Amino acid sequence: MKDADILFCRKAVVNRLSETTAYYILHPSNVTQGQDASFLSSLFVDANLTEITQQKTIFFQTSLTELSALPLQTNIHMVIFLSANELTEKHVETLSEFRLQGYQLGIINPKPEALTVALLSIFSYVMLTLDHLSVDDVITRIKHPALSSKNLWVNKIEKSEQFTQLLENVPEGQFSGNFINKMTSVKGKRILAYKAILIDLLVALNNRESSPRVLAECIERDPTLTYRIIKLTHSVIYRSQFNVSNAQRAIEIIGVRDLIKWVGLVMLGSVSGKPDCLFSMAVSRACFCQNLSTTLFPKLDGAFLVGLFSYLPSFLDEELPTLLKDLPLDENIKSALLEYKGNLGGILKIVVAYEAGRWEKIPFGLLASKDMSKQSLKDLYIKSLKEAREMGSL
C-alpha cells in the first residue's frame, strides 16, 4: 500500500459557461463497467469524496450487478449511470426499488424507441457519448419527448467544433471530454474493501434490531469472506453437523458476538506484502487478551478485538487514531486502544508488556489479588499461542 497508489480518476463536467458542475469518477484503468471491490473501497472508504469533489455532484458508472453493493451516500449528491444495453423491462421493479431507497440514476446512450416509458421514467439523467454517437445523433436523440425533460450530459467531447455545436443545441446540458478538461488522478493510500464491510457490520451490530439476514448481506458482499465464515462452522471450534451453504446460517451457528472477531481476522489475513509471522503475532495477542480478560473480568466483552486491532498500524501502515476514526467501535474499545484506559486498556498494557519481556511493567501484585500467579499468566500465554495456531489454519 503506497501513498502514490492511484485510487481513482476524475473528470470535470461543465455547463455552457465552462463552470464545473460535477465530477465524473472513473476507475484508474478507465474501465467504467464491472468495477472491482478495491475500486469501490477506494471510492467510498479510502478518500474524502466531499473534499475531493468540492461538494459538487459526482457521476459514477457501474453495472446493474454492482449497484446492489454500492452504499447509499446521504452526504453526497451522487448519480449512478447504467448502460442502456444491459437494461430491459424486467429490471423496472429492481430499479424502482433503488429509486425509492434514494439513489439517483442515469442511463447511458438510450434509444428511446427501443425502451418502454416505464423504464425510461426511472432515470432522471441521460449520458450520451460521442465515441458511440455523432453530434447530429445526439441532437436528434435529445429532442425525443422521453429524453427532452431529463438532465442531459454529453461525454467524450474531443474537438472544439463539437463543443460549439452542442452549446448551440443543448444550452442547458452538461459536458465533459478531453477537449474541456484533462483527467486528474486522485492518489492516496489504498485500504482493503473489508474495511467498508467491517464498518457496515459494526453499524448493524450496534442496532439491536438487526437480524442475521442483514448481517449476512454485509458478509456476502465478498465471496472470500463468505467462504471463510462458512468454513468456520465445520471447524473444531463450532463442530457444526449441518451442511451450511449460506452466510446467514453460518452466523446463526457462530453467533453474533463472535462475528466481528472472525471478520477482523479475515481482514488482516488478507493484507498482502506482510510477513506471515505478523498475522500470527496479532492473533496470539488477541487470544492472550481474551484469555486474560476471561480470567480477570468474566463479563467483559471486546478483549479479543482490542488485541487484534492493536496491530492495525503494522498491517495498514497508518496511525491508529486515523484507522479507528471511521470505525463505529464501542468507546471502551477505542479508549483502550488509544490510551490504555479502562479494564480493556489495562489488559492490553499487561499483554504488550509480557510479550516484550518488560516484567517491571506488569502489576504482579494486583494480579495476585485476583488469584493469578506468574505461572498462571505463563500458562495463559502458552494456551493463547496454541489457540492462535488453530485459528491461523482456518
TrEMBL record:
InterPro entries: HDOD (IPR013976), RNase_Y/CdgJ (IPR052340). Residues 191-375 form the HDOD domain. Pfam families: HDOD. This is EAL and modified HD-GYP domain-containing signal transduction protein. It comes from Marinomonas polaris DSM 16579.
